[in-house]
């Protein structure tokens, strides 16, 4: 391809790209552009036309212009009113902008002119195939584009030269100026061919999609038009027959609005929407949206309430029937009912029941609704991440609906139901809004009397709703939301409580569910005890209920297949029905050992014991921590070793001991993640035992956080930890002194047989835990 440098007057084009082979006229109004055209006419009528990148740029510089433009010949100039000049120009060759020589009184540029005239294209089968392929694509495009004239298409299809064909198709195809600029920029002919072919195919696909969408829209419009005509005909027929008994929808809505008990604001809103519904009868789309909205407003129980049952004795009876244990929870619920009955006010604190899974939080709320004889609505918040789930969607959205709170009120049929917000700790937040913040208004007694659902658009009074929330943990609930709720802890069940729950509730429920009677199936207490200890590991009773269900199914099959009249489950034959034991408690070691101390841990399924092992070996003073420990536990180990080093003289530990020995701390069951500060004193004791060679008592367990100065700080989950110690055969438990008040609240069946020693410093821990060499 031949290139020649030329100095030419230049015109910056706005929203227009001219390519070689194109004959086009355009208007110029800028002084510089008019001067450039006039100068070109004085010279040899040659002018360089280049498109500017931004249409709004008034005085473009080199960086504001595309690099590639077109050198053309001016054919005609016409002066128009208002200082506008119309120019007819013929594009001839590509030009690459190298420099702007002058900017005033007109723009003159240095251009590398690229001539395609000497481009050699081999006349082979490949070229013929390219010509035919391009023509086929162009014909398909032209058949779908009404702007293409038949004469121009016919003229182009007669061209057999590939270079000329590419230029002519590009020049005569109504692409947007940006697409034409892409073609102009491509100085390599073969790449230009590929780009043109790609754009033709792309345009055909776009037009196909456009036709498909237009066809669907046309079908929908025709359907709505047909419905309108039929509706008008039906209306006319009714008028001719004098059929006045049939009320129109608008009349039915108006009649329902008259009977509706609601605040004045709501009635005005309904009346306004009914009038809009009447005027939208000819628009099915708007008509459907308005109809749904009016029906929702009419179905809401704005001023409809149910009478509360304030009999405390009946409430106590219901709670005792439905739940065993949970004395503190029952006591708080009855106190709450007593105050509510005396004040005769709907407003009340929002109770938040917090505890491990399967401990009966949801069923307590259900029992409370039965005790009060109120409608019960359960809303599961687990995984809710869209604020619109709480506040509702705005009517302008397709498929809009009220939020879960408003919908729950509608389902209850009264404005003062008991509403359970289940799993409030599992609400999540993302780009769709902060769901926790939306709940702040719902659960605030000072704000929720004017709760505004986005769909309803009128205030909804939630002040008389009795809200109960449940959660497994308080860690994920934001502080402002937690501050609006009164927390009641539902703790783990003891094995004795599990036994009573199984006998009084689970077994009768499962027998009825599986079509069995107490004469057909019996489960001994020892078998239940073994199921709770060795076949389940949980804080609640869900797994225990499933195991009882397994036994019921196997017993039902035996009764039918073997014609048995009775199946008795005992401790001896339990393995036959449930298989091998799944869980065993790590019992206390038989003898005292050096570097092995038993700790206590809280888990989501109850308490457990952790056996912490420490070995000391020659090395360089490194501390190894294994057993998949979390960051907090690793920090406790570092704190413990720092405390030991500070008191090393007291225990006759050599000054260079920590420089010449490595200490390895390990907690078995490495696949199970472990974290928390309550193993601090346990790890410190185990490390000191291994360093000094003093044995640690095997019948003793401990729990507590340690500080650098050896103070023992309080911990949580004491009930579960003491139960774990008792199950493991531990006789003595060391607890932080500040946790003594928690021990006083525990039932005697938990503390019976345990010697609980409160400690406040590591000196007391070591005095009780370590023996002499």
Write the topology of this structure.
Blueprint: E1 2-13, E2 23-28, H1 31-42, E3 46-51, E4 68-80, E5 84-102, E6 108-115, H2 125-144, H3 150-157, H4 162-172, H5 177-185, H6 189-241, H7 249-259, H8 264-279, H9 284-299, H10 312-322, H11 327-343, E7 350-354, H12 361-372, E8 376-380, H13 388-391, H14 404-412, E9 418-422, H15 435-442, E10 451-452, E11 459-460, E12 466-471, H16 479-482, E13 485-489, H17 495-513, E14 521-523, H18 525-535, H19 542-561, E15 567-569, H20 574-578, E16 593-594, E17 596-603, E18 606-618, E19 623-626, H21 631-646, H22 657-660, E20 661-666, H23 680-692, E21 695-696, E22 700-702, E23 705-706, E24 712-713, H24 718-727, E25 732-736, H25 740-744, H26 748-751, E26 755-759, H27 762-769
Helix pairs in contact: 2-4, 2-6, 5-6, 7-8, 8-9, 10-11, 10-12, 17-18, 17-19, 21-23
Domain Lon proteolytic: 591-772
Subunit structure: Homohexamer. Organized in a ring with a central cavity.
EC number: 3.4.21.53
């Amino acid at each position: 391809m031949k290139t020649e440098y030329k100095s030419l007057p230049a015109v910056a084009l706005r929203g227009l790209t001219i390519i070689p082979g194109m004959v086009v006229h355009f208007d110029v109004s800028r002084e510089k552009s008019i001067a450039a055209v006039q100068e070109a006419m004085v010279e040899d009528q040659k002018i360089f036309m280049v498109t500017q990148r931004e249409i709004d740029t008034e005085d473009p510089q080199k960086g504001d212009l595309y690099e590639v433009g077109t050198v053309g010949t001016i054919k005609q100039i016409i002066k128009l009113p208002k200082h506008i000049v119309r120019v007819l120009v013929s594009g001839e060759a590509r030009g690459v902008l190298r420099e702007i020589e002058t900017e005033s009184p007109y723009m003159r540029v240095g251009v590398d002119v690229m001539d395609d005239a000497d481009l050699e294209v081999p006349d082979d089968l490949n070229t013929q195939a390219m010509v035919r392929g391009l023509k086929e694509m162009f014909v398909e495009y032209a058949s779908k584009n009404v702007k293409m004239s038949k004469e121009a298409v016919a003229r182009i299809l007669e061209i057999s030269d590939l270079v000329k064909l590419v230029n002519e198709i590009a020049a005569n195809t109504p692409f947007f100026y940006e697409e034409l600029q892409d073609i102009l920029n491509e100085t390599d002919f073969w790449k230009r061919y590929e780009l043109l072919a790609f754009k033709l195919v792309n345009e055909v696909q776009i037009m196909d999609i456009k036709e498909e969408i237009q066809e669907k829209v046309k079908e929908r419009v025709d359907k709505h038009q047909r419905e309108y005509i039929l509706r008008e005909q039906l209306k006319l027929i009714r008028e001719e027959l004098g059929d006045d008994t049939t009320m129109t929808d608008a009349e039915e809505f108006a009649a329902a609005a008259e009977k509706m008990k609601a605040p004045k604001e709501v009635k005005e809103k309904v009346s306004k929407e009914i009038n809009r519904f009447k005027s939208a009868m000819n628009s099915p789309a708007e008509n459907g949206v308005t109809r749904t909205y009016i029906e929702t407003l009419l179905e809401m129980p704005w001023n409809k309430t149910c009478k509360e049952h304030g009999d405390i004795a009946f409430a106590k009876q219901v709670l005792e029937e439905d739940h065993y244990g949970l004395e503190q929870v029952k006591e708080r619920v009855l106190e709450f009912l007593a105050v509510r009955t005396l004040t005769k006010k709907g407003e009340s604190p929002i109770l938040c029941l917090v505890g491990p899974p399967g401990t009966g939080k949801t069923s307590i709320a259900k029992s409370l609704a039965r005790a009060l004889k109120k409608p019960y609505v359960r809303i599961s918040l687990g995984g809710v991440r869209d604020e619109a789930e709480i506040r509702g969607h705005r009517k302008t959205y397709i498929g809009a609906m009220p939020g879960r709170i408003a919908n729950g009120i509608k389902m209850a049929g009264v404005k003062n139901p008991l509403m359970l917000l289940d799993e409030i700790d599992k609400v999540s937040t993302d780009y769709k809004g902060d769901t926790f913040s939306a709940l702040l208004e719902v659960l605030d007694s000072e704000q929720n009397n004017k709760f505004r659902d986005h769909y309803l658009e009128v205030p909804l009074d939630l002040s008389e709703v009795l809200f109960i929330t449940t959660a497994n943990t308080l860690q994920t609930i934001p502080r402002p939301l937690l501050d609006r709720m009164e927390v009641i802890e539902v703790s783990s069940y003891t094995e004795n409580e599990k036994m009573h729950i199984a006998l009084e509730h689970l077994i009768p429920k499962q027998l009825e569910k599986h079509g069995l009677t107490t004469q057909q199936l019996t489960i001994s207490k020892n078998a239940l005890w073994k199921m709770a200890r060795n076949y389940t590991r949980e804080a609640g009773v869900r797994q225990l209920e499933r195991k009882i269900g397994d036994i019921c199914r196997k017993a039902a099959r035996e009764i039918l297949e073997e014609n048995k009249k009775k199946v008795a489950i005992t401790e001896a034959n339990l393995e036959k029905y449930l298989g091998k034991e799944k869980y065993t408690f790590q019992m206390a070691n038989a003898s005292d050992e050096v570097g092995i101390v038993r700790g206590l841990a809280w888990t989501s399924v109850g308490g457990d014991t952790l056996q912490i092992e420490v070995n000391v070996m020659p090395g360089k003073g490194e501390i190894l921590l294994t057993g998949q420990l979390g960051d907090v536990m690793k920090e406790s180990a570092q704190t413990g070793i720092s405390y030991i080093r500070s008191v090393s003289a007291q225990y006759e530990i050599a000054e260079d001991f920590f420089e010449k020995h490595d200490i390895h701390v390990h907690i078995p069951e490495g696949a199970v993640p472990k974290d928390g500060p309550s193993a601090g004193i346990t790890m410190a004791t185990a490390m000191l035992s291994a360093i000094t060679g003093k044995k640690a008592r095997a019948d003793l367990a401990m729990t507590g956080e340690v500080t650098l100065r050896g103070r023992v700080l309080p911990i949580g989950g004491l009930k579960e930890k003491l139960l774990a110690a008792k199950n493991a055969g531990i006789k003595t438990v060391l607890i932080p002194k500040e946790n003594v008040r928690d021990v006083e609240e525990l039932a005697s069946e938990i503390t019976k047989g345990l010697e609980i020693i409160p400690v406040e410093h590591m000196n007391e821990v070591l005095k009780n835990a370590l023996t002499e060499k």
